[in-house]
């Protein structure tokens, strides 16, 4: 396809029957296949909730909040998009109902609709259509994939489905709808059941949208009969019934989709001539390494949402990338920060070759994090502290090495007389909670020589942030005198970005979030080297 001749194709991904079927992974997998065929692709997530962004949602509600280069607090699916495609996303890639309504209401107040009654159709739907088409402006991408959050039939998603209906009508073959649905297996009857899918497609039809492709999530392979039955009842060709069988790694899904010819069907339906088969050599070699690790290493993650894998999604994925790079499997042990203390730290961390202390907010579980850090600092076990994890490492050091028991962060004790971590000056005036932290990419200069410099192999780096509190530079000298060095500094503000400990094999704290930048094609150097160091202990 030559882009000068063809305009952007828009692919909509909806979900039926139930949530959590993996629309984000299917969208990212299709995008990967199209990218591997040489097309330019971007993915967008439309979330039907009224929050302006997920930044104010607690991880129990919505899993991790993923931060983009431009400082947008977004849905964790954007993390999958970046990890699969290795290209950055931005605020435009994640839009919520709250943001749509906010824009429409601002226009109403400005007088843009003077005289008109402002309504869901056409005003809200027009805003949704505008946000979708914005990504296709100037034919910058060959494909824009738009994933609609939620499940078809939800009240919240109605305006989105209506917007898709209208766009499909306007765009014809330049658009298509992929509906992800569930084919449950009833073990008592030993049968796969198509009825929920039929109902879900009927709901789409009631809204005026005929799905073009059905991706069917299933535990068991779909045979010819089932495929034909689904095709017959749902008005799709049998070749457009795509099996999405359960697998043990999300990274295998692009290959499964390739086997099912999802990319080919998409190209055919959008009348796009295939320019070449997907080049997936690197991806396949990653899968091979992932499948056949030569060794394993036990690493623990201390945080307060350990029962919820989605809360630390990007950290977990970064460790998978890093393990694969080291030809080893990372056995991740989650320890709840409220269940670890100075007395049981040795027992809880027995056999662990590395510790990650997670990012977070608020007082809950802080003592446990500090106890775990104290243990690994004294026992020469590799440590990576991320954001709050780094702040805890400094509190631990101040209390136990600098012998200042009242050292604290003003987040935990606003009245502390020894505020080694303090709120940033400009944050003191901020009272609004949404989108007001230090967010997005900031540059950092690494000191030479330092472990950080050795790991990154360069002096200037850029990493993404999400926090309000900072190392208080007033106390920096005291830490450095006792061997805790600030090895990364923001060149403009002088804020501490990285700390490391002299005389310890691997002890690094980072004020930023390296986990947001690790991808399959470019595993993050800090995670890579952390796993290498942990593995070195195993040998
Ligand atoms: N609560 C800390 C702060 O705001 C750390 C934030 C984080 O870990 N993302 O500075």
Summary keywords:
single chain; 539 residues; nine-stranded mixed β-sheet; seven-stranded parallel β-sheet; disordered N terminus; binds glutamine
Structural class: alpha/beta
Largest sheet, order of strands side by side? 13-12-14-15-23-22-21-18-19
What hetero molecules are bound to the protein chains?
A: glutamine
Biggest β-sheet description = 9 strands, mixed
Shape by Cα distribution: globular
User: How much beta, percentage-wise?
Assistant: 15-25%
How far the N terminus sits from the C terminus, by CA atoms, comes to 51 Å
- The helix content, as a percent range, equals 25-40%
Q: What are the low-pLDDT stretches, counting only 5+ consecutive residues below 50?
A: 1-5
How many individual helices?
18
For the secondary structure, the number of strands is 23
Taking Cα atoms only, what radius of gyration do you get, to the nearest Å?
25 Å
Mean pLDDT: 94
Q: What do you see in this structure?
A:
The chain is α/β, with parallel strands linked by helices. Helices cover 35% and strands 23% of the residues. Strands 13-12-14-15-23-22-21-18-19 form a 9-stranded mixed beta sheet, sandwiched between helices. The longest helix has 15 residues, at 120-134. Residues 1-5 have low confidence and may be disordered.
